[in-house]
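Let us walk through a complete example step by step. Step one is to write down the protein sequence. Step two is to encode the small molecule, S-adenosylmethionine, as a SMILES string so that its atoms and bonds are unambiguous. Step three, shown after the inputs, is the structure prediction itself.
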Amino acid sequence: MNISEAYNHWANTYDSNQNKTRDLDQRVTQHTLQKLDFEAVVELGCGTGKNTEWLAEKAKSILALDFSEGMLAKARAKINSSKVTFRQADITQNWNIPKDSVDLICCNLILEHIEDLKIVFGQAFQTLRKGGYFFICELHPFKQYIGSKARFETENGVEVLEVYMHHISEFTDTAAKCGFRLVELKEWFDEKEERNQEIPRLLSLVFEK
Ligand SMILES: C[S@@+](CC[C@H](N)C(=O)[O-])C[C@H]1O[C@@H](n2cnc3c(N)ncnc32)[C@H](O)[C@@H]1O
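Step three: the predicted structure of the complex.
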């Protein structure tokens, strides 16, 4: 199964399965972005719209991109806002968004499926206005080092998705080469009572153009 086919299947249970990464990402995103000002947003890999819904309360317009029709269908069913435009698109291709037109690019739990970060970071830099933010929240590479991968249950067993490893320095170096300034880097852990190993679950980064 390729990645978009896998997400078409996962779409049916993505919101309801137990998923600590998804839930922590939602908390981290709101915590990080509530202190920033933005009006026009591009969301990369919006999935079922978990973060789109919250972004729509704060922003004036959101263009939400995803290549899985199944995930987009769930998002469209959930979010009925004139501020939000959903578009089926592969973010490794040309985004076709005007240059210098956006205040925030939001990217959650998608870069592990992207082999070449330059393609995404380069377009993010072009698309943002000067002073705009590129927010990334991803499964921490330390989790990948111990074997964590995006996966979901199917009637035929567990489906493990195709993923690529990106070290922390790859995120920061690629961003710097594209022209970004690092504003914030944070590591996020499971709730204390659930924590059984000292490995962060998520890595978040805020870059500024
Ligand atoms: C783990 S889900 C995350 C969804 C959402 N951002 C969230 O935090 O719940 C990853 C999403 O990225 C999308 N995706 C993966 N690779 C993509 C690509 N090359 N272009 C567009 N979307 C992609 C998948 O279809 C899926 O909806």
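Step four is interpretation. The pocket of S-adenosylmethionine is lined by residues 3-4, 7, 22, 25, 45-47, 50-51, 65-68, 71, 90-92, 108-110, 113, 150 (CB under 6 Å).
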